[in-house]
Amino acid sequence: MTSVNGFLKWFFDIGNWLAKVMYIHILWVLFTLMGLVVFGFMPATAALFTVIHKGFDGKSDPAIFKTFYETFKTQFLKANALGLLLLGLCAFLYVDMNISKQVIQSFFVHMFLLIVCFLYFITVLYFFPVFARYKLSYFLYFKQSFFIAFARPFETIAMIICLVLLFYLFTYLPVLLFFAGSSLIAYPLAWFAYRACVQIEERKVN
To answer: Residue 10: what pLDDT?
Structure first.
């Protein structure tokens, strides 16, 4: 009987988690559309990571809609400003890569730019979890994300592996992307970033 109860509890927990994942994804889609996509994507994604991050803290189960809505509303301008900076850096690197490939045609310059693109990529991996955990100035979000990416290489590699696995999962089961895509991407990124932040904070205390 104990094993049956344990199985039922496990089954219930899995079902509850899946329902939560789908619900958060639906909120992300709705709030992104509410901001006409362009202005909704960044604050909705910030709210998505905030809800997930608060769930990891273990202090209390966050009121999902309330947390999502309040984060979207209060961080709307800041999230969009940071998104503009991220987009600007991405566009700058894209233009530089094309110039290097078509005009300069130098192997060393191209390799240097590829390294810079990789550094940008791993910084972005931590960007939203850092935004959800800390209250920083604009520049410090980039600096802190970059620092954590290098300070915790295990978590950074784990994030990249998760993204690769999710890419193949969504390729074979695209319905998951439609019903829970944003949450399934955010959960592993938020989890490994949370582990990285906690480890760094504990090391500073000790």
So the answer is: 79
pLDDT of residue 9: 75
* Residue the block writes with tokens 């961080």: 75
Q: Which of 127, 102, 98, 97 lies closest to 112, judged by CA? A: 97
DSSP one-letter string for the chain: -HHHHHHHHHHHHHHHHHHHHHHHHHHHHHHHHHTTTTTTHHHHHHHHHHHHHHHHH-SS---HHHHHHHHHHHTHHHHHHHHHHHHHHHHHHHHHHHHIIIII--HHHHHHHHHHHHHHHHHHHHHHHHHHH----HHHHHHHHHHHHHH-HHHHHHHHHHHHHHHHHHHH-HHHHHHHHHHHHHHHHHHHHHHHHHHHHHHHH-
Name the CA dihedral angle for 166, 169, 175, 177, rounded to a multiple of 10 degrees. Answer: 10
- Mean pLDDT in each 10-residue stretch from start to end of the chain (206 residues)? 64 87 97 97 98 82 90 98 97 93 86 96 98 95 97 97 98 95 97 96 81
Q: Is 65 left (phi over 0), alpha (psi -120 to 50) or beta?
A: alpha
